[in-house]
Amino acid sequence: MSVLRARLLDIEQSKQKEEITKQRRSQVGTGDRAEKIRTYNFPQDRVSDHRIGLTLHNLPRILAGELDELVDALATSDQAKGPEEQQHDLKAGS
């Protein structure tokens, strides 16, 4: 009887570990290039935001904190989306 109990416990623990692993993988990206949000290209003095297709030049100014142009473009892009897309982005973690 104790062997059966141990096997059932092991099966249940394996199911729980598998579920936790599945949830973790759905929350954490793979780090692929396709998942990049933004690129800082120092030799070309530019910043590209891949989510909205925006490229800005004068990298030192942006790194110094002058982000108004970038933030405004992100806000405009977000407002242009419908409520369903915004909900999807929140669930996906974008």
Task: Describe this entry's structure for a reader.
The protein has a three-stranded antiparallel β-sheet with strand order 1-2-3, with no helix packed on it. The protein has four helices and three strands, in the order H-E-E-E-H-H-H. The chain has one domain. The longest helix has 26 residues, at 2-27. With 94 residues, it is an alpha+beta fold. The chain has helices at 2-27, 59-63, 68-80, 83-92; strands at residues 38-41, 46-49, 54-57. Helix content is 57%, strand content 13%.
Summarize the structure.
This protein is an alpha+beta fold and 94 residues long. It has helices at 2-27, 59-63, 68-80, 83-92, and strands at 38-41, 46-49, 54-57. Strand 2 and strand 3 (54-57) form a beta hairpin.
Domain count, please report it.
1
Oligomer: single chain
What is the structural class? alpha+beta
Helical amount: 55-70%
Number of helical segments with 4 or more residues: 4
Q: How many β strands by DSSP?
A: 3
Distance between the termini: 50 Å
